[in-house]
Structures are given as structure tokens and as C-alpha cells.
Design goal:
Blueprint (H helix, E strand, L loop, with lengths): L1 H8 L4 H13 L7 H12 L4 H13 L7 H13 L3 H13 L7 H12 L4 H13 L7 H11 L5 H13 L3
Helix pairs in contact: 1-2, 2-3, 3-4, 4-5, 5-6, 6-7, 7-8, 8-9, 9-10
Organism: Linnemannia exigua
Protein name: Sel1 repeat family protein
Pfam families: Sel1 (PF08238)
Amino acid sequence: AMEWLMKAAVQGNAAAQVGVGKLYRSGLGVPQDYRKAFEWYLKAAEQGNSTAQNYIGMLYDEGHGVQQDHNKAMEWLMKAALQGNAEAQIGVGDYYCYGLGVPREYRKAFEWYLKAAEQGNWSAQIRIGILYDEGHGIQQDHNKAMEWLMKATPQGNAAAQVGVGNYYRSDSV
């Protein structure tokens, strides 16, 4: 895979550059190397590839291959999120939810999670359910919490299934 991806990547193909970055990040077929992953993701990210922008944000968040920097992570996550990348939208939501590099703002976290949840992303759907359950950024509403958790359960997510089970057990809905 690396041989063929590299042929396209060196010609400037952003999707191939992301593929090369993924192989270096995971260590599949090549020694794991976060710095090389970062370099290849950056080539694609600078071309506007939202997947690469999201991965750049994640590497800055984790401090893999680069110095950990929540401000730079948020900058790259936001670029991808504004293009509709659901994973990046969750990342931006997490940054607002936990106050990483930005002030903690549950309402903004909710808005970004909602963008990803409406795309069918189960992880975002669970986060929306939790915010409704706890009343962070929105008015507490156990029925809406249950609705969002239920949306994530058909996708086989155990956390959502546990949440739904706990609601039924507690008679909160």
C-alpha cells in the first residue's frame, strides 16, 4: 500500500498524502513515525483536505510528532469542522466542553456536537445526550437525552446502550 500511495502522494494527491500519513501514524507496513505522519498530513491539509486538517489537529492535541499545542490543535480542527468534517466538529466541541485552549462554553460545545450528530455520528449523539442529561449549555431534558442516546444505539454503541438501560432503570423518562 505504501508503495502505491507514495507514488501518488509525491505527485501532490491529497488523498494519497493522507493515506501515507495514516500508515506512518499507525505503523502499518512501516515503522510508526508521528513526525512523518505530520509532514504528510500537512501537505494534504494545506491543500484544504479536511481529513488531514482533522489529523493535524489531533496530533497537536496529543503532542505526537509535534509539541502539544491546544491553540494550534483548535485552529486545525476548526478548519476541518467548518468544512463539515464530523470528527473535527466533535473535536471542536470537546475543546469547548472541557475548556482546552478556549474558555469552557457548553453552549458552543453543544452546537458543534449537534452538527456532527445530525450527520449520524454516534459519538456526537452520545455527547448531545449527556449534555441534555446534565443540563450543560442547554436546559436539562431527560426525554431529549434519551432520544439522542437512542439514535446512537442502532449503531451498536455499548455506551449508548448502557445509557438507555440506565434511563429505563431509573424511570427518568
